[in-house]
Design goal:
The protein has about 270 residues and is an alpha/beta fold. It is about 35% helix and about 10% strand. It folds into 2 domains: about 15-25 and about 95-255, HAD superfamily/HAD-like (Rossmann fold); about 25-95, Putative phosphatase, domain 2 (DNA polymerase, domain 1), CATH 1.10.150.240. Helix 1 packs across helix 4 (about 75-90). This is HAD-like protein.
Length: about 270
């Protein structure tokens, strides 16, 4: 009997988050914060309930959220970030890609599907995290990357940078990096033509604020959560993804009207 392939909206371009979606950087965040010399030396630990609230947030906001769970710690946000950066920077050049990402990026590039990256990470950190994977993954994006400290996001936000769950990063990536007529702002601020163009976009995310961001941008969202995050209840009354996958290896391009994988595609 023939396999029935679920049909989802037809898309024309794709925008990727970075951390925890393309590369296994969330593991490094966790190890540096909990297992190394930061929280561990205070005798406390970051649980996945706490970590779920950090993912996708700008770094100072995430640090404030983390430390709010440990009010007795004599550790300021500035001290925490400084110590975290030293430990993380030593590990970024070794961070591995996550399963399925190489195959997917190379496949979309081969079939001329426009692709971009929108990440909350700082530009300097992006370079450290990706330079060793330029040939396999990141070279296929060229300069079509929006980072969390890019000035263009400040322009988009009217003088300030709005991190996820605001839609700014994905809209800037679609408009400025890929030349799509998506306009600015969420919801009714866009014209019918701009909303139709947004609906042609496919966002890949691992964090719940990123799912919210993609949906508020009017795009389709594939959520690929860490198993620890997926085991937690999804928050009520917020935007939900269009598709949830255990890994990018499970992504089926033709469900979204994209060319199917070739028989000789990389695993």
């Amino acid at each position: 009997m023939a396999t029935i392939v679920q049909k989802l909206p037809k898309v024309e371009y794709a925008i990727f988050d970075l951390d925890g979606l393309m590369i296994d950087s969330e593991r490094i965040y966790t190890e540096v914060t909990s297992a190394y010399q930061i929280l561990a030396e205070y005798g406390v630990q970051m649980t996945w309930d706490i970590k779920a609230g950090l993912m996708g947030k700008p770094e100072r906001e995430a640090a404030a959220h983390l430390l709010s769970f440990f009010p007795g710690l004599s550790l300021t946000i500035e001290e925490y970030l400084k110590r975290r950066d030293v430990l993380q920077n030593a590990l970024w050049p070794t961070v591995p890609p996550l399963p399925g990402i190489i195959r997917l990026v190379q496949h979309l590039h081969k079939h001329s599907i426009p692709i971009a990256i929108s990440t909350g990470t700082r530009r300097a950190n992006f370079n450290m995290k990706t330079s060793h994977l330029e040939k396999e993954i990141f070279g296929y994006f060229g300069n079509k990357v929006v980072c969390g400290d890019d000035d263009i996001l400040k322009v988009e936000g009217g003088g300030k940078i709005n991190g996820k769950p605001a839609p700014d990063g994905f809209l800037v990536a679609a408009r400025e990096m890929l030349g799509r007529n998506v306009g600015k702002g969420a919801g009714e601020s866009a014209t019918p033509e701009q909303r139709a163009e947004r609906a042609k976009g496919l966002v890949f995310e691992d964090a719940i604020p990123g799912v919210q961001s993609g949906k508020r941008a009017g795009m389709n969202v594939v959520w690929v959560p860490d198993p620890n995050l997926a085991s937690l209840p999804y928050p009520d009354d917020i935007e939900r993804p269009d598709q949830t996958l255990p890994s990018l290896e499970a992504f089926v391009p033709e469900q979204w009207g994209l060319p199917p994988y070739d028989n000789d595609a990389l695993a």
